[in-house]
Here is the input.
Amino acid sequence: MKISRSIIFILFTILISNCSPISTSTEFHEEEKTEEISTPTALETVEIADTQSISPLDRKYKPSPDNITLVTIDGDKSDWAPYPAGISDPTGDSSGNVDVTFSYAFTNEKYLYLLFEVDGEIGSYVQVDIDINPHQDGRPPDFMIIARPNKDSLLSLNRILDGEFIQLGEMGVVSQKDAFELRVPLKAFDGPTPETVSLRVMDGICCDDEWLDVEGTAPFPILHTNELELLFTEMADLTSKDSAFCRGTSLNSPDFFKPAENIQVPVGFKASFFVPPSGLNVPSDVVVTSKGDILVASSRLGEIHKVNEDGSVSLFSKASTYALDQDDAGNIYGYMFPNGEIFRLNEKGEYFSITRIQDTACESTLAAAPNGTLFIGVNFCTGDVSGQATIYMIPPGGNSLKEVVGEIGQGVQSLDVNSDGVLYAVLGNSLEIIDFAAGARNPVAQLPDWGSAHGLVVDDTGTAYVSTGDMEPSGDLYRVDKNGEVALIASFNDNGLEGLALTPDGEIIGTQRSIGGVKIINKDGLVQDLVKPNGLVSPHTIVVSPCGELIAVNDEAGGLTIAAPTGENSHLIKLNSFQPPQTFLAFSPDGWYVTGESAPGFPSFLKRYLPSGLSEILADDISEVSGVAVGQDDSIYASATGSGEIIKILPDGSRTIIADGLSYPQALAITEDEKLLVVIGGMSSGDVFSMPQFGDTVVLISPDGSKETLAKINAAADIAVANDDSIYIPAENAVYRVSMEGNTEVFAEGFNWVRGAAFDISGNLLVADDSRNAIYQISGFPQGSLRCSVVNLEDGIGIADATIRITQSIPPYAGRIISSDSNGEFRFPVAPGTYSLTIWKEGYQQTLLEEIEIVENKETSQIINLAK
Here is the structure.
């Protein structure tokens, strides 16, 4: 189980570091910024015909006709024309590419909005700091907003009170394109009202002489308006260009999918691979043996694989490990968390348990010295608490365990021992040499970001290679020489590297944990794929969007993936999806979706996302939130796994408890008659995991709150509701079919370990195999068909290339999009049920048709008139 490193701790370390003390904004270009700021802070409205033609500093505030804030956080300044700039900044005064020209700030009823206009391209910058209510007498500001827009769309808000830095958490969003654009909820400011702000842009190597303040502004006032915030759900638009969905319209015939012959299904059904297994599942670490063999820990599959020169993968050992290393005698060592077991493997792949240390829910690491001495970096955390880290030493033979360094607050990301027996460690973002005899830490260099798990290898000269971004959509590879000089070797735009190893000729092998790839980087920084990633690892929950995309929750990757049968799986959003409990998501018919995010050592959040990727926190007080569902009135249901409740959140934000007293409620689903299905039960894993990984009972909850047990199924993980109201439960190596009367039978079996199930709009059952890293499609369920003609309302002529979205009218709101042909027609196989149609094309008015009934074995015809 992978636990990502919280960026908030990095930023806190930066702020309290002696290398980079908190600065007040008056330090920035004081002599250049003494001009009087004339921008009004009270509401002032004047009519301006064209605000774009007026200097930003000279504009007068002009609200929209309906007094609604129409700003979108997308890094684009074009929607800020109604707002005057709060301050102008001299051009050419920065020490980097970020040269702020104008700064804006305003509040409406709900948010503080900020935009910093930049001359030239922003590029990739490490950190943007914003002081709220900065003081002129040397005192720290009331609040500090810290953002890393090139790394994460979330920002953190921090309170500075009586000299103490208080982390308030991730409470806003940021975007970086041709401007820095941010939004923070006003309710997050639990102290002085935001009145003034100032900006500081930082770049370089954190906390040393390379950590530069490249640009900053003097304090400027915030414009306070009485504008209303557009309801978050009203901003959902599946037809917009920034939507992550509705981007493709191709349909794949059943013959496209490769048969899954190992899956047994009833007569009349067919099992195929929707996404075939990639060979590697969570490649967490790598070692190059003395023979030159490349061995990769495919940790979620519980195997070690040999990767050949042509990129093919073969089984080396059935040992289940997350970290790998070897000694000079050719022994290979593996460390498995959370159970703390340590293995020694021989050249045949045979493995022997040599010792076991304490359990931990946080990923930890291992290194082997040339003489076989082992070093274990243990990051302690239990089901809801993250603690400090310790480095242990195990002498050859594994007879004892000695603490080398304890109370490491940054965490131990990686360890390595060079040929001279010197122990190196990446602790947070610090590369250090560990004197294990004296238990002392000797810093070598500071890195721009936290290192990846197992992402350190040191050559015979003492040159270290460190990777970052193992849980991010991007990452870097750095070289640190023995003098502590840090140089960037390569960057990765899909996923940073995790485990690292060196080949005899000096090439670097790196694993891409979150997308399933293996890279080779030569001495000149040239990057090549050894194993091409398929973008999918450890799929758990799967859901079909209103446009037909299959969205998979990747447990070990910490995010959502759009899974495609072509193998071109793509990252959607980052989230804390590390179970237990399992993370679920549910769509509304309009395209917004909700997730229950709760992972060991992380806070519990119920979040809502727009198709554009913008998000809001709906709740942060639901105990270990897990299962989610969206009702026909847009109410949101969430299972509080920790407190045993099912909570309903109405569209106005009010809450009600649907059921309580449940044992670990997890997966949720809603039937057509608004009954609630929930997986409950299971067992926690002692002190390490306070929540179960899956349940053992399926319960039906009526609207009046009464409960009925439908089925007892060990390891029940998810619920998929068919059009006949029967339900399908993935559990261990099988999928069970359960009727509403409670009749239970095995429907399909032969999987490795299934964790997710969902029906697409054509009635095919999709099943996610977490262990095999594959998604299956089972066809053969009842179907009807929809045949339509899209015509011009004025002349009745068919309209080619119109986009049609067909969506279920009841949860879970699966859909599909298709394009009309040259005659304006289309035909589509659909499961029996009730649907709605949305049709659009540029130059025509969008049209919505509802209550379209599809009947089994029959074709429904429809003429769709589009008006210009």
Confidence is low (pLDDT under 50) at residues 1-51. Residues 85 and 104 are 5 Å apart (CA to CA). The chain has one helix and 70 strands.
